[in-house]
Description:
Layout: E1 2-5, E2 8-13, H1 14-20, E3 29-31, H2 39-46, H3 50-61, H4 67-78, E4 89-93, E5 96-100, H5 110-128, E6 133-139, H6 142-152, E7 158-165, H7 171-178, E8 185-190, H8 194-213, E9 217-220, H9 227-246, E10 256-261, H10 266-276, E11 281-288, H11 293-300, E12 302-304, H12 325-332, H13 337-345, E13 351-353, H14 356-365, E14 366-370, H15 373-387, H16 393-411, E15 419-423, H17 431-439, H18 446-457, H19 463-468, E16 478-479, H20 484-492
Parallel strand pairs: 5-15, 6-7, 6-9, 7-8, 8-16, 10-11, 10-15, 11-14
Antiparallel strand pairs: 1-2, 1-3, 4-5, 12-13
Helix pairs in contact: 1-5, 3-4, 3-9, 4-5, 5-6, 5-9, 6-7, 8-20, 9-10, 15-16, 15-17, 17-18
Bound molecules: pyridoxal-5'-phosphate.
Amino acid sequence: MQFIGTRGGKTVSGAEAAVRGIAEDGGLFVPCSFPAVSAEELGAMLGMDYPERAAFILGKFYEEYDKEGLLAALESAFARFEGEDPAPLVRTDEGLYLLELFRGPTCSFKDLVLPAVAYLFREGKKLCGIREDLLVLSAGEGDTCKAVLDTFCGAEGIKAIAFYPEDGVSKMQKLQICTQEGENLNAVGVRGNPDECRTHAAKIFLPTREKLLSKGYLLTTADSVNFAHIAAQIAYVFSAYLDLVGSDQLSEGERADFAVPAGNFSNLLAVYYAKKMGLPVGKILFACNKNNAASELWKTGVFETRRTAFSTMSPSLDNLLPANLERLLFELTERDVEKTKERMGQFSSGRIRLSSVELSRLKTHFSGGCTSEDDTVDCVYEFFTEYGYPLDTQGGVVMHVLEEYRKNLRDEFQDVPPAVVLLTASPYKFPQDVLYALTGNDVKDSYKGVKRINLLTAMKVPAPIKDVRYKPVLFKTVISPDKIAGEIEKFIG
Ligand SMILES: *Cc1c(COP(=O)(O)O)cnc(C)c1O
């Protein structure tokens, strides 16, 4: 499969797009067309386990890679997960399914993504004849930072540096990041919110890449601006659907809605892309917290680019400038490079305005909603009371938006289709806020939160969460956003 950039430019191979991460003009790579998955192929995938399904979907985009090698890499990575199935689907009620994406070594959905990206990097370098070592940059989102460090720990010919937002991670997330061991790794806190961290890193990315080449490094990223990240997410969307069919919850071809969090839009796009590939997806519900620029776009067709950022209890959704907005605009303009440029160009004016056709395309496939902090707390509490299941705070945002959506359907006497809710992190990553939601108790210590949640809910504490408690904190540097490029150069030496 060939790839193009959202800002035009020449087409490149899948390997090239994966290894470089971002196009030379700053655009985001997307496949030239979406490979179809036929009904026969879907049928064949029913009999596959998760690694096989993931390798099959990734193989559709990255045909030049060795399929056996990819499958073996995924199998060995997923062997580190807790439980048999790396992405289990849990039925809580008639037509309501939770996709648990947090069984991996760092307890967020990024664990399902990064092993694939790592393989595409490693083998892609060979396929493209790239001789430089890779420097993998992650910036702006706590769970991604941790998963990148974990995945590339000790990787040959690769270094990784993660910039996490000081004001955009829970204490537990910060502890996970800063206790990471590995000679080839570095983690640095950046003052400010996730958007500030990410947009500064994005700004210096291409000039820094240029500089580092002379030092023998190719700067790249495994964050969701890299299409490889999203390709791996498409795999779990397919897998969840197949699990529904395989357990007779759905008949073949019947549609399911998907409810996803909206931070940097990677899950939102993964479901949309899966739909374009032929998966019977109904509505894609995307959920924002108080930082609701995205749900306002859905409501009004206007995306305000200068809004006050709030620090919330669902920090992975504290984005006002989603990294993958450009990919969504690319699709809404029917892949029109000039129109995408025009829309992105409106960014600096403070307002991106969709045409009425673009807005109606958005509404055809998506439904957006948002929550207040109180809504999130109430939802986590009520969901636990009803089903005995502790959602994480991002999950609380998504579930609230789904419930509102379903309530409206019922009020209008419409059918309520089955829905899959993506749970992107373990509640134990946000123990203080989850405990507060469940009991009203504020605890200062993350581990007191962990213990009480465990006593209350009987959900098993993941081993990786237990493990970091007594690990030494290795990374203590905190910088302002304008020092990101300098830190990268210092790290390379
Ligand atoms: C990364 C992350 C998100 C953001 O996901 P997008 O689909 O890119 O918006 C949401 N929740 C958690 C827990 C995350 O780690």
